[in-house]
């Protein structure tokens, strides 16, 4: 169990959080911290607690123990909407787009929701759709996009709100290999150009290793390891628990 540390005024944090469901311990004393302009990769086997932790961070669930702190403020009991208004955005594993609106309108609505004027929202949408390669699909209904392009639209919508922190849950799912470099560039731009902290969950190990400043590994609801990409690649416990002895380098080669 990782001991909680003192909150920081420039970070999003989970401090010693635990979550149990009907007696099953999904998380057990996990501490996570991501700063502005930082990409934190969050990896682990299925059932390790990654999405549960993101749900706690974004307010879609509450911890059994511990707290969520946003730049020094305890937001553990805040709703997802209130957290969004204070600079948190999220992408989801499964859609959550406005299917009856166009691709452009989906991004504009997100921008207007954070206070942008209609004109500014249109400019922001145009720039983001160009960045994620969806400019030619701008007037198409969102529900008609292929799955991989819906993922890219979800990222554009999240960034349109100009958040201070973005939590991305499987953004590379459904993308072909040739589309991953553009996603890497997009995630880095969220941190470097937009100044946001990013928590990235993805099974694409090559993506996580390339784009993350730090990586935190969960296993059975606890933090197994933390470090940069090289440190995680060489960690024997990670190789054993997360990859069943396969090895990080081999896993990256098969994504």
Brief descriptors of the model:
255 residues; alpha/beta; Rossmann fold; 2 domains; six-stranded mixed beta sheet; four-stranded antiparallel beta sheet; globular
Describe the secondary structure blueprint for this structure.
Layout lengths: L10 E11 L2 E12 L3 E5 L6 H9 L6 E6 L2 E2 L5 H6 L2 E3 L12 H11 L4 H14 L15 H14 L4 E5 L10 H13 L4 E5 L3 H7 L2 E6 L2 E6 L1 H6 L1 H8 L4 H6 L2
Parallel strand pairs: 3-8, 3-9, 6-7, 7-8
Antiparallel strand pairs: 1-2, 1-4, 4-5, 9-10
Helix pairs in contact: 3-4, 3-5, 4-5
What do these coordinates show?
This protein is an alpha/beta fold. It is built from ten helices and ten strands. It has helices at 50-58, 80-85, 103-113, 118-131, 147-160, 180-192, 205-211, 229-234, 236-243, 248-253; strands at 11-21, 24-35, 39-43, 65-70, 73-74, 88-90, 165-169, 197-201, 214-219, 222-227. The strands form two sheets. Strands 6-7-8-3-9-10 form a six-stranded mixed β-sheet, sandwiched between helices. Strands 2-1-4-5 form a four-stranded antiparallel β-sheet, covered by helices on one side. The model has no long low-confidence stretch (mean pLDDT 88).
């Amino acid at each position: 169990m990782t001991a909680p540390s003192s909150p920081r005024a420039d970070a999003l944090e989970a401090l010693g959080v635990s979550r149990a469901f009907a007696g099953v311990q999904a998380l057990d004393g996990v501490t996570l911290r991501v700063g502005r302009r930082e990409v934190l990769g969050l990896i682990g086997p299925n059932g390790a607690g990654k999405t549960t932790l993101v749900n706690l961070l974004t307010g879609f669930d509450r911890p059994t123990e511990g707290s969520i702190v946003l730049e020094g403020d305890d937001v553990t009991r805040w709703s997802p909407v209130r957290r969004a208004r204070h600079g948190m955005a999220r992408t989801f594993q499964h859609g959550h787009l406005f299917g009856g609106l166009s691709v452009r309108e989906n991004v504009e609505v997100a921008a207007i929701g954070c206070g942008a004027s209609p004109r500014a929202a249109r400019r922001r949408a145009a720039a983001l759709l160009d960045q994620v390669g969806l400019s030619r699909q701008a007037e198409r209904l969102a529900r008609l996009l292929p799955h991989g392009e819906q993922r890219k639209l979800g990222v554009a919508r999240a960034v349109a709100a100009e958040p201070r922190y973005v939590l991305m849950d499987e953004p590379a799912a459904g993308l072909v290999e040739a589309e991953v470099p553009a996603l890497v560039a997009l995630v880095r731009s969220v941190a470097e150009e937009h100044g946001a902290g990013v928590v990235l969950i993805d099974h694409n190990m090559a993506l996580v290793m390339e784009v993350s400043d730090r990586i935190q590994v969960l296993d059975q609801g606890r933090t197994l390891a933390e470090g940069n990409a090289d440190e995680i690649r060489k960690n024997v416990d990670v190789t054993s628990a997360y990859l069943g002895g396969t090895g990080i380098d081999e896993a990256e080669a098969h994504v």
